[in-house]
Design goal:
It is a single chain. The chain is an alpha+beta fold. It is built from 3 helices and 11 strands; from the N terminus they run αβββββαβββββαβ. The strands form 2 sheets. Strands 1, 5, 6, 7, 8, 9, 10 and 11 form an 8-stranded mixed β-sheet that branches.
Length: 226
């Protein structure tokens, strides 16, 4: 992933998006704190160079690694992150889910009624990116149908006031193929046309630090660097 980002920055490669599922693990971003790992023995913990704090990745979660030229897209990091949030919200809308953002909280949220009929905010997508020479890497994690109990082992993204949810928990029977189609359609609207890669990535350790990760056979989005 970092090698690809470096090649994009050098105008030697196309932009690219990898769509993955990881084995169960926790990742700690550059702002992570040790006390946010409530059960560090529960799953493997990997230190990550992305922004943000501690989160969970695992089967049933669509992880999107975005290697995009942010300088060519306005050189505005906040606008880029807002664009990622808008992309996920647009994809969720195609699946019949209303996603929202909140001031001071990065990511995408949904509001549902609890057992007493009171509104509850829960996070359905986390965002953690890093830029090097204005090219992004790492990205977005969208909860499709993961084991949400693994979030109990951490304070997700340093926020102990809100829980995590998923499409499955919301009663949306969306398989990964349907989710990927929604992501690609919304990506084209937000970031521009895509073309399929010559062949899908199918390899382990996609980021070099998370063994067993598998890339989706979904066509990989990319744009020719000028």
């Amino acid at each position: 992933m970092e090698a690809r980002a470096a090649a994009i920055a050098a105008s030697e490669a196309d932009e690219m998006v990898w769509l993955l599922e990881h084995p169960p693990l926790y990742t700690a971003g550059v702002s992570a704190r040790a006390e946010e790992l409530l059960q560090p023995e529960r799953l493997p913990v990997f230190t990550s160079g992305r922004g943000g704090r501690v989160t969970y990745h695992g089967p049933g979660q669509r992880v999107c690694y975005l290697m995009l030229d942010v300088k060519a897209r306005g050189a505005d990091v906040r606008a880029f992150v807002a664009g990622l949030e808008a992309w996920i919200i647009a994809a969720l809308s195609r699946l019949g889910v209303s996603g929202e953002t909140r001031p001071g909280r990065v990511g995408v949220w949904v509001v549902r009624a609890d057992d007493a009929g009171r509104p509850v905010e829960e996070k359905i997508a986390a965002i953690g990116v890093r830029l090097r020479r204005w090219v992004s890497f790492h990205g977005v994690a969208l909860n499709v149908a993961p084991d949400l109990t693994h979030f109990d082992g951490i304070i997700p993204c340093g926020d102990d006031a809100h829980g995590a949810t998923s499409l499955a928990a919301l009663g949306v029977p969306a398989g990964m193929a349907l989710v990927d189609a929604a992501l690609q359609e919304a990506f084209i609207e937000a970031f521009g046309p895509t073309v399929p890669a010559a062949s899908p990535l199918q390899r382990t350790g996609i980021a070099g630090d998370r063994p067993g990760s598998q890339a989706s056979p979904f066509p990989i989005a990319r744009r020719r660097v000028k």
